[in-house]
Amino acid sequence: EVQLVQSGAEVKKPGESLRISCKGSGYNFANYWINWVRQMPGKGLEWLGRIDPSDSYINYSPSFQGHVTISVDKSISTAYVQWSSLKASDSAIYYCARIINYSSSAGDYWGQGTQVTVSS
Amino acid sequence: QSALTQPASVSGSPGQSITISCTGTSSDVGTYNYVSWYQHHPGKAPKLMIYNVNERPSGVSNRFSGSKSGNTASLTISGLQAEDEADYYCSSYTTSSTVVFGGGTKLTVL
């Protein structure tokens, strides 16, 4: 069974750093890109970027490039998003999703989401 | 890149059909047949309903169908059921090798 399991909820202060994770199982992790998607409170879905676990090649959304870093450790089938200096506006639910194929970039399996709260 | 344009809300009665539109540009929807549709119930992970404009993943009801004309894609749900009430998002691959989502449409089953 394909599963993506994300790390638990986080509460951080502005300026702190954070890394959240997404561990895949039940399939060959290296063969499928991973999307990262954000949902701010009461808002819609936003695409952060995607990563190819086989070679760590990344496409970032222009809206998020420079503010988040997407990475992967294929040896443990885990993808990450990290922030070096959080802002209150980073408070959101973050989802990872396995991409069905590179071109479509459609996410066929999703993680359960990680709630990130940034508050002083 | 701007978000794709979806109506904020649509509604229909059980058994009826509804269509949700998703308008992009020649840099995304108009160039590629890589439009996807997701169903999102609050508090749960989004679910892929349609990909590549009109393909259904295994297990998705054939009441859900997709189409595209020019820069506008559409999701049609036939035989509306109460459990279809959710938020629906379209997304598209773009000429910049990125992905853009629509703003989302809230479907109410009356």
Chart the SSEs and their pairings:
The complex is a heterodimer of chains A (120) and B (110).
Chain A: E1 3-6, E2 10-12, E3 18-25, E4 34-39, E5 45-52, E6 57-60, E7 69-73, E8 78-83, E9 92-99, E10 107-110, E11 114-118
Parallel strand pairs in A: 2-11
Antiparallel strand pairs in A: 1-3, 3-8, 4-5, 4-9, 5-6, 7-8, 9-10, 9-11
Chain B: E1 9-12, E2 18-23, E3 35-40, E4 47-50, E5 64-69, E6 72-77, E7 86-93, E8 99-101, E9 105-109
Parallel strand pairs in B: 1-9
Antiparallel strand pairs in B: 2-6, 3-4, 3-7, 5-6, 7-8, 7-9
Describe this structure in words.
The complex is a heterodimer of chains A (120) and B (110). In chain A, the strands form two sheets. In chain A, strands 2, 4, 5, 6, 9, 10 and 11 form a seven-stranded mixed beta sheet that branches. Chain A has a four-stranded antiparallel beta sheet with strand order 1-3-8-7, with no helix packed on it. By secondary structure, chain A is mainly beta. In chain A, a hairpin with a 4-residue loop joins strand 5 and strand 6 (57-60). Chain A has strands at 3-6, 10-12, 18-25, 34-39, 45-52, 57-60, 69-73, 78-83, 92-99, 107-110, 114-118. The radius of gyration of chain A is 13 Å and the shape is globular. Chain B has strands spanning 9-12, 18-23, 35-40, 47-50, 64-69, 72-77, 86-93, 99-101, 105-109. The mean pLDDT of chain B is 96. The chains are: A mainly beta (120), B mainly beta (110). Chains A and B meet through strand 5 and strand 10 of A and strand 3, strand 7 and strand 8 of B.
